[in-house]
Amino acid sequence: MSKIGLIIQREYVTRVRKKTFILISVLGPLIFAGLIFLPIILGSSKNQNQRIVLVDENQIFCGILKPNATAFYDYGYCSIDLESVKKLFADSVHVSVLYIKKEEKVTEDFQVQLFSKEDPGSAVISTIEYQLNNIIEKGKMRSHNLDQATIDAVKSNVNVKNFVNDKKTERGYIQMLAYAASILIYMFILFYSVQVMRGVMEEKVNRIVEVIISSVRPFQLMMGKVIGVGLVGLTQFLIWLLLGYGAFQVGSSYVQSQLITPNTTTAQQTLTKGLPVQNDNMDAGSDVAAQKMELTKSLNDWDDFLRNTNWFLVLGGFLFYFLGGYMLYSALFAAVGSAVDQETETQQFMLPVTAPLILSIYVMINILSNPNSTMAVWFSMIPFTAPIAMMARIPFGIPWWQLPLSMGILIASIFGTVWLAGRIYRVGLLMYGKKVTYRELGKWLFYK
Length: 448
Fold this sequence. Notes:
Layout: H1 3-16, H2 19-47, E1 51-56, E2 72-74, H3 82-88, E3 95-100, E4 112-116, H4 122-143, H5 148-154, E5 162-164, E6 167-169, H6 171-205, H7 208-212, H8 218-260, H9 264-272, H10 284-308, H11 311-339, H12 347-369, H13 374-379, H14 386-393, H15 402-428, H16 438-444
């Protein structure tokens, strides 16, 4: 085995055997899956237990507000005074009292108040606001002698289906994919490049490097470290991909089963347990039907997204830009690690190295809204921002010539950066006790 191969093997084996690597590799996908599905599960379980008791002094909205996925309305208390109802439900956690004050003329500015023991959530409040506004708007239309048929006739529900190259695209899901891929590349590049820098510093401070370079050239040592740590990152990514896919499938199945077939009988019992129910208007069937219809639409959109996305291009682009970006930055981090004796001294050199990475995150946010803008194209060609900028564009589809051009520029830049970093690395590796400046680094590039 070559000397570089031995160094790669050492860097790879020592890192994958660590307990931290195993824990992060196993727990990482589970944590991400939990962040995605846990809010959905908790939110849906809370919404199914919301009961809105209506007190309407105008006697206008009783029986009109419709139950939906966020709230069940109980109209049996419309004619009872507010204070009596508030006392009656003072200790009820999942019950809110919706109070509509007596008004001479009902307009959009009339007073509506919601009293509850705990915050019912923004979804419940926004639903109430939407329904009340809708009812008032219809009432105004009728006051202008518009019948229900005319009101329904003027309604419109435009839904633009986006097709790119005759393929239907679900922009929301594509934006999520582009964002996640870009953030993962940023995290992997930064995390593993810093590992290369710390490994170089550790060997330099402990004087181990003096023994190592008696057998290998400094450039071979640097390349062995960069490639070895890069393979560790690639291994972790593959583990995350497999475990993440499994965790996502399990989470999707559970969420679908909970939202499509909720236990409505249990929900109603929870709402009414220990509470007096008069003319209760909880239409659980319509609630379930609305949830099922909405979820079915989301699942159909998700299926379209999975079928129409070029996963070979997305995954291939991710692997290339992860490895390319890592090679580019890890060489620079290795040079920084060789130039200093303590981690506190790296701060003066870290900003110029990490600034393009940070800038590319801000650019990526703009790319998600306009992936083919002039700024997006230029930043996907600049090698120091291309790994994140281009990865944010690939899921949307890009002109065929831009991807090979960006890859070619990145590959050429890797060779140039590795050569420059190697010039600094070979001198700084044996430099001790001296505070290095940018001028000093410039001199090291030309040392023979």
